[in-house]
Write the structure tokens for this entry.
Amino acid sequence: MDKEKIIARIMKECEADDEPVTREEAEEMAEMEIKANGIKNYTQSDVEKKPRKKREVKKDTTKISFIHYLEEWLLTTSVEDVTIINEQKEIAFRINGEDYSLSLIKHRKKKEV
């Protein structure tokens, strides 16, 4: 766009806003606008994102055997509908018509300072 057209547009817009500017101020604003138009905005990337690899969960045999032990024990009591939700983490059951579940959490070793 021509610098003179930009200056005229800026002066007209400022006058419409009841804030008239001098020609020197309009020239300065036009130069800033021209420089700003030359700056590229790189917020959108053209590179496709790589598909993530599915993370393989390591089996914890201790947790699995403990959940199965809990299942066997609960079946020997007056508990109903014993179900293993996740063989390494959760088991669900019903007592007196109400639903319960147990989650097994293995804590990490504390770091020494």
The chain is about 40% helix and 15% strand. Strands lie at 80-86, 90-95, 98-103. The mean pLDDT is 85.
